[in-house]
Amino acid sequence: MIACLSLAACSSTGGKRAEDARKAAVAQGRSAVNTPRWTFAMITHSGDGDTFWDIVQSGAKQAAVKDNVTFLYSHDDEAQQQAQLVDAAVDKKVDGIIVTLAKPDALKAAVARAEKAGIPVITVNSGSADSKKFGALTHVGQDETIAGEAVGDELNKRGRKKALCVLHEQGNVGHEQRCDGVAKTFHGTVQKLYVNGTNMPDVQSAIEAKLQADRSVDAVVTLGAPYADTAAKAKQDAGSKAEIDTFDLNAKVAAELKDGTLGFAVDQQPYLQGYEAIDLLWLYKYNGDMLGGGKPVLTGPQIITKDQAGALAEYTQRGTR
Question: How far apart are alpha carbons 22 and 281 in whole angstroms?
Fold first, then answer.
């Protein structure tokens, strides 16, 4: 046997082998740890067909493989139904719950029931303002007000004067915070436009009608990636010169940033939200760890423009950005 010449060399070699083994295990769909097979449930306010949540799930599933976790996902855009899904997860005696608080008042009792049952809860995406007082361990996501303020700053840089902020889900506190954040830092005027986000033809016609009626609107801000392309079509049909900007990123948004159809996007990194939520629950169960020090773990905002879109295209195609 050849002795290692230094502890540092031994540590370096062993660490590299361990890391290589971990990466190989995850790539092959095998766990990288030998902790118990815990079950974590994620319950969101997503409606059907919202690609944003596909990206969140992609991150959560990858972390679940690595952490030897059984991952359960359910969703409902009706707050009372979402609360019932949380109750169902409690009844199943899952080992951890991840939940969005888009409409926090409706979820408060369900979250309290989970905690009474001894099930740790992490909030994700929506509800940073209520997460701690509801008793959750932490919140993973972007601060919606800060994200809105970043949009206002970017609109100022672009010389815009009048923005239309399109809210596609009435009652979603995060959406209101985004538009209010825009208004806080934007030097121009912000108008809110409420649309039925489950009906894209109606969304398009509502934006088109507004752009036809008010030619002074020179920026349209949508609050979700699927609505950006719809707004671009409405702009074209209305003969408007307004710039279309959006929250969130997907493959279509990346392509339209690159070709100039869209001005910029605000990325809150949904893959990271799903991944970190699972990983933080695992760390808490395994080692009593919790990031954030009582503050939200921020995943955004990041302003994405034409300059960065090309580099991110590969990641959006595989469903991780």
Answer: 19
pLDDT one-digit tens code per residue, 143-184: 999 999 999 999 999 999 999 999 999 899 999 999 999 999
Which helix (H) or strand (E) segment holds residue 73: the answer is strand 70-75
> What is the phi/psi pair of residue 26, to 5°?
-65, -40
Q: With both helix axes pointing from N to C terminus, report the angle between 173-185 and 144-157 in degrees, rounded to the nearest 10.
A: 40
Report pTM.
0.83
Question: How far is residue 270 from each of residues 48, 76, 123, 288, measured CA to CA in Å?
Answer: 17, 18, 13, 25
Tokens of 21: 């083994």
Q: What is the 3-state secondary structure (H, E, C) of 21-65?
A: HHHHHHHCCCCCCCCCCCEEEEEECCCCCCHHHHHHHHHHHHHHH
Q: Which two tokens stand for residue 179?
A: 């538009």
Among residues 141, 162, 169, 104, which one has the least CA distance to residue 266? 141
